Amino acid sequence: MSDERISVECTVAGIVLAAGSSTRMGRNKLLLDVGGETLVRRAVRLAGEAGLDPVILVTGHARQAVEREVRDLDCTPIFNPDHETGIQTSVARGVAAVPAACGAAVVMLSDMPFVTEQMVRTLVERYAETGAPLVVSRYGEVNAPPILYERGLFGEISRMRAGCGREVVRRHHARAVQVDWPADRLRDLDRPDEYESARRELARA
Questions:
Q1: Is 77 helix (H, G, I), strand (E, B) or coil?
Q2: What is the number of structural domains in the chain?
Q3: What is the per-residue pLDDT across 68-90, written as a single tens digit (0 to 9) for each?
Q4: CA distance 14 to 56
Q5: With CB atoms 3.0 to 4.6 Å apart as the test, which of 55, 106, 117, 125 could cross-link to 75 if both were Cys?
Q6: Distances (CA, A) of 132 to 19, 59, 123, 125
Q7: Residue 59 belongs to a domain with what CATH number?
Q8: Is the pLDDT of residue 194 over 50?
Q9: Which residue range is the domain that position 33 belongs to?
């Protein structure tokens, strides 16, 4: 992409990944309640409220139950039949579903309940201000979702061998804009103790 600044009206899609089997949790974590709503519903709602359009929900394991949770929200479910082979296949499915009118997409994980609407909005704002092909969330020394990818990187994302885009971030680090967040926002819920801790914390919020 050129150095010209992106119009703030540029459409940015959201890709919410919700295909995993939650093996370490022992039950489908995306259907667990946090702060009065399920994890997957929280993620999809937040993406829409942050202005991402369209919001693409990539499902896999227990797709029908997951899709029921968001049936009244404005999102487009996309099924990944290869979800058991790795998260990179879900990213590729999501990217392939992004409409041609969208100049970029924000990739989000459904199990990061401490990501906020304002965090997602800030990524889009920095993209609009700078025209950077990558806007990366940084938590201390760790880069993690949500991450904004400009359309010119979609092909590379689709060819990833593993992970959620970290190899693409490393490859284009020099051209990326990084946005710093408190390190304690980087919490995904993989185990029962992590869920119970997050549930108690969000209930007090």
A1: strand
A2: 1
A3: 999 999 999 999 999 988 889 99
A4: 6
A5: 55
A6: 29, 29, 11, 11
A7: 3.90.550.10
A8: yes
A9: 12-204
CA distances, 8 to each of 102, 113, 128, 130 (Å)? 12, 27, 5, 11
Pairing status of strand 12-18 against strand 33-34: unpaired
Q: How does residue 187 score in pLDDT terms, banded at 50, 70 and 90?
A: confident
Residues in a beta bridge with 12: 104
Pairing, β 37-38 against β 33-34: antiparallel
Beta bridge partners of 109: 17
1: in domain: no
> Which residues are CB-neighbours of 69 under 8 A, at least 6 positions away?
30, 31, 38, 40, 41
Of residues 113, 122, 140, the one with CA closest to residue 195? 113
d(CA 180, CA 142): 10
Which residue type, as a one-letter code, is found at position 145? Answer: P
Map tokens 């969208």 to a residue. 102
Report the helix count and the strand count for the chain, using DSSP H and E.
7, 9
Give the type of residue at 43: A
Task: Give the Å distances, CA to CA, from 134 to 25, 47, 71, 141, 198.
Answer: 32, 18, 31, 17, 29
